[in-house]
From TrEMBL:
The keyword Repeat applies. This is Uncharacterized protein. InterPro entries: TPR-like_helical_dom_sf, TPR_rpt. The keyword Repeat applies. Pfam families: TPR_12 (PF13424). Signal peptide: none annotated. Transmembrane segments: none annotated. TPR repeats lie at residues 574-607.
Length: 913
């Protein structure tokens, strides 16, 4: 292929570069938009050092030549600061503004400035990081508005943005650290029509990871092999103008007299190069190091290829110790400092650690320049910051440091100096990204100095990072500790697993977190497990709740509660009781929910957070609403609203909480049929959410207003509300999105458009499965049964009902089981299968008795209404069927209303014809 535009220092990879250009030029809608480059080596332990970074640089050069106006954004996850969604978003904005000078991302810049002026982006306020949900939402919304203004400037059929991500293996477990928009999957497109992403990491993509599951068609994979023998020859020829000759002078004189000497020398050199290829396996990192050593005449090619195969890597790397001073020491320092070595840091180290001989002249700039000449040294950031290639770092630590510093004494001295360098910096002058990078580097050196102290410092950083939703920073901290895992005690390794499970849950991967916790229970020592019982139970509870496994959630929360009460921790116990109340409410176990809420309320009424007290008042009101105790529900919710309004007036609460109170009040009025009052409070809630930019609340309120319109029979208006909710949360909030799909299906069903209803409910089911929201899945499956039956797809309807019933019985969803039986009854009645229909109606009423008295009464009234709609001659026998079925279930005594109603109807109709 034509290599115009490829850097002169780059060689080979012609097939791969040709594939890259073809992929880049193809912007058809069905074309893969992600090119994933990874090592072809099948053994994970031998991956790395294959030249991916070199390849990416060549690709970027070609892209810029072929597409001069293309915005190219380069991100290297090796740099800690690049593992930050805001850094990447800012870089995208800068490159787009450079490519399209008539456009400015004003809304994004103003929003960013607003948060910065409030201290949210300062290193002094790490708990207010941009990963905070509200800030991310605001920034992504602002950028989306800006991009809408950019669209008219974009060429319709040309690529607009190329994102290049290097060293992906460092974030492959949590790529969401690079995504600004909530709910977006990595990599983000930023609302642009034609975006390409070039991704390079050691490993192939994991198609079972939530980020990549089901996305195979979006990705083109490119396995990068080692250098070929021809490429090794080219590399050596380019790097070494004259290869050192190992022949002694006598052999040289003899060869000079021989007319065939040049031919023999060329053949010997070719054999040596072939041997070097075998020894290095064509790995560019080793070939490059070999050239570095040959060029400095530390050994000859003949000596190099004489190394034994099994020890070649070791004997090659240890020769770094033979490099001229101070270059040999600088490489070791670079391997230990790891993330970055700058001129100021090196100057500081020279004052703290003995790196030079007495009287030796020091030129920091010359030393750094010498390092830059080595093939395995890379730029680590802006300016003069350098780092060792990550694979070479591993080799240097293993083969050089362990020989030079077996007791790690000198490395601890270096770490002490690095710590003092960062600790004397002015934190206030650091950006958030610089602050994070320095904390990660400090953590690594504290772990080198003292593992226990390092872990204590890790905890102090990790805790706020997880609570504040700064999961990207938390992940980097965790991976830093993981590098030191061989030095940890068994108890420390188990604790590390527990921290990782906590982080996986926060990263919304509860199934992976749960699997890790279960493995930990099998592997850890029983005494350690006993000491961590409460922490383990709490993590299991949170994982179960995220997956809507409500009975499991209760089991683990109750374990936590028992332990907290034994410890005498009243505050923790009351918080857990409030959480238990929420889960019981979700299950429809109202008495248990009230018991837990009231126990929690008793504590917070006397002490603790007034905001939590208001939450409990609102939650108790919710339960009363669901029980049909409308007056009590209104009383508690109005009181909760009053407390929240007072806290808001004092600046101790934002308007989101007030919106939640209005939303609950609206639901109470909706339940009692007061639609105007319900609508008024929903609109109050909407205003509160709009003031704080709470997108989920806004979309949920759209759905609620749609429900009001649906109850009024205003189907078109209802559908408009539901579609607005969908538009607001698509790719952002799956739970509200599912809800909007469900209700759009209900509108279509009311209109008799069963195929359209089916499409919406299938979509809701698919998203509920992905979210592992079992409650919404069962809700949608029940309605799916109805649509499939109306469309004559009876086998599919039966399969949907079997799945719905299985999940509902596992999770104790009595309300949904009752609704499902009612749907089956309606379908049977429509087909004149009267006896079967009323058996389903009886089953529905029976399930509702387990849910609450209010729903049971509603179901009973609906059954009686359907009974009286039958032809008169069929009413008495059907009434007897219902009463007898009710009696056989043992429900006639505890719930006599249905039995008595059917007996009375049968008696009243027993009259002469």
């Amino acid at each position: 292929m034509e290599r115009l535009g490829v850097p002169e220092t780059f060689l080979g990879r012609d097939r791969e570069l040709s594939l890259f250009l073809d992929w880049l030029a193809n912007i058809q809608p069905d074309a893969p938009w992600i090119l994933s480059v990874h090592d072809a080596e099948p053994d994970p332990a031998r991956r790395g050092g294959i030249g991916k970074t070199w390849f990416l640089r060549a690709c970027v050069s070609l892209a810029r030549q072929r597409f001069p106006h293309l915005a190219v954004v380069q991100v290297d996850f090796f740099r800690v600061a690049d593992r930050d969604r805001l850094v990447i978003a800012r870089r995208v904005v800068e490159r787009l503004q450079a490519a399209y000078p008539h456009w400015q991302a004003r809304a994004f810049a103003e929003t960013l400035e607003s948060f910065a002026s409030q201290g949210y982006l300062s290193s002094l306020y790490p708990e207010k990081d941009v990963a905070d949900i509200r800030i991310r939402d605001s920034l992504s919304e602002a950028l989306a508005r800006d991009v809408q203004e950019l669209l008219p400037y974009l060429p319709e059929k040309e690529l607009q943005l190329l994102l290049v991500f290097d060293t992906f293996e460092l974030v492959e477990r949590s790529p969401q650290v690079a995504v600004l928009g909530l709910g977006q999957l990595f990599p983000e497109r930023y609302g642009l029509p034609h975006v390409k992403v070039l991704l390079a990491g050691r490993n192939p993509l994991d198609w079972q990871h939530p980020t990549w599951h089901g996305r195979e068609k979006e990705v083109l994979e490119l396995a990068l092999p080692p250098f070929s023998p021809a490429e090794v020859r080219l590399y050596l020829a380019r790097e070494l103008a004259e290869l050192p000759d190992s022949a002694d002078a006598g052999e040289a004189n003899e060869a000079a007299a021989d007319s065939e000497a040049p031919v023999l020398a060329a053949e010997r050199q070719a054999r040596s190069i072939e041997r070097l290829y075998e020894l290095t396996a064509g790995r560019p990192i080793l070939v490059g190091l070999a050239c570095d050593l040959l060029a400095r005449r530390l050994l000859t090619l003949d000596e190099l290829v004489a190394f034994p195969q099994g020890r070649f890597e070791e004997q090659l790397v240890v020769r770094i110790n033979d490099l001229e001073r101070p270059l040999n020491w600088l490489i070791l320092v670079l391997a230990h400092v790891y993330h970055r070595l700058s001129a100021p840091l090196l100057s500081w180290l020279l004052t703290q650690v003995r790196l030079t001989e007495a009287g030796e002249q020091v030129s920091v700039e010359e030393w750094l320049a010498a390092l830059r000449q080595l093939s395995f040294v890379r730029a680590a950031g802006e300016g003069d910051e350098l780092a060792l290639h990550d694979e070479m770092r591993r080799l240097v630590v293993h083969y050089c440091w362990e020989r030079q510093d077996p007791d790690r004494r000198f490395r601890r001295e270096l770490s002490r100096a690095v710590i003092s360098y960062y600790e004397q910096q002015n934190e206030q002058a650091l950006s958030e990204q610089e602050w994070q990078a320095s904390r990660v580097e400090l953590l690594a050196h504290w772990l080198t100095m003292d593992v226990e102290e390092g872990l204590r410092r890790f905890q102090r950083l990790f805790g706020p990072a997880t609570v504040g939703w700064r999961s990207g920073f938390a992940r980097t901290l965790l991976e830093t500790v993981r590098d030191y895992e061989p030095t940890l005690t068994p108890a420390q390794r188990w604790q590390l697993r527990l921290w990782e499970a906590q982080l996986l849950r926060i990263e919304e991967q509860p199934h992976l977190a749960q699997a890790l916790l279960e493995r930990l229970q099998q592997e850890a020592d029983p005494s350690w497990l006993a000491s961590q019982e409460e922490a383990l139970s709490y993590e299991f509870a949170r994982c179960a709740l995220q997956q809507q496994q409500l009975l499991q959630t209760i089991h683990y929360y109750e374990q936590c509660l028992d332990l907290a009460q034994r410890r005498g921790d009243e505050e923790e116990a009351s918080t857990l009781q409030g959480q238990l109340g929420y889960v019981y409410r979700r299950l429809g176990q109202w008495d248990e929910a009230l018991r837990c809420y009231r126990a929690s309320l008793a504590y917070y009424q006397q002490r603790g957070s007034r905001a939590w007290y208001a939450n409990l008042l609102n939650s108790i009101g919710q339960v009363y609403r669901l029980q049909g105790r409308i007056e009590e529900a209104l009383r508690y919710c109005l009181l909760g609203l009053r407390v929240r309004e007072e806290l808001w007036s004092q600046g101790k609460l934002d308007e989101r909480a007030i919106g939640l109170s209005h939303s609950t009040l609206a639901l109470i009025y909706l339940e009692s049929g007061e639609l105007l009052q319900a609508e008024r409070h929903f609109r109050h809630a909407f205003e509160c959410y709009a003031h704080v930019g709470y997108r989920t609340g806004l979309a949920a309120t759209y759905n609620r207003l749609g429900q009001v319109a649906l109850l009024k029979g205003q189907l078109e208006e209802a559908n408009t509300w539901f579609k607005q909710a969908e538009a607001l949360v698509t790719g952002f909030d799956e739970e509200v999105f599912i809800n909007s799909q469900y209700y759009q299906g209900r509108v279509a069903a009311e209109q008799g458009h069963w195929q359209e209803a089916l499409t919406h409910w299938q979509c809701a089911c698919e998203h509920a499965r992905h979210l592992q929201d079992r409650y919404q899945l069962v809700t949608s499956l029940c309605d799916l049964v109805e649509a499939l039956s109306h469309l004559g797809r009876h086998e599919e309807a039966q399969a949907a009902w079997r799945e719905a019933r299985t999940i509902a019985e596992e999770e104790g969803y009595c309300l949904l089981l009752g609704r499902g039986e009612e749907v089956l009854g309606d379908l049977a009645l429509a087909e004149k299968r009267v006896e079967e229909a009323f058996q389903h109606y009886v089953d529905s009423c029976a399930w509702m008795t387990h849910h609450n008295f209010l729903e049971y009464h509603k179901a009973q009234r609906r059954l009686v209404g359907r009974l009286l709609s039958l032809p008169l001659e069929k009413v008495p026998p059907t009434a007897h069927l219902v009463s007898e079925s009710w009696r056989q279930r043992g429900l006639a005594e505890p719930y006599p209303e249905l039995y008595q109603a059917c007996e009375e109807i049968a008696q009243l109709l027993s009259i002469p014809g």
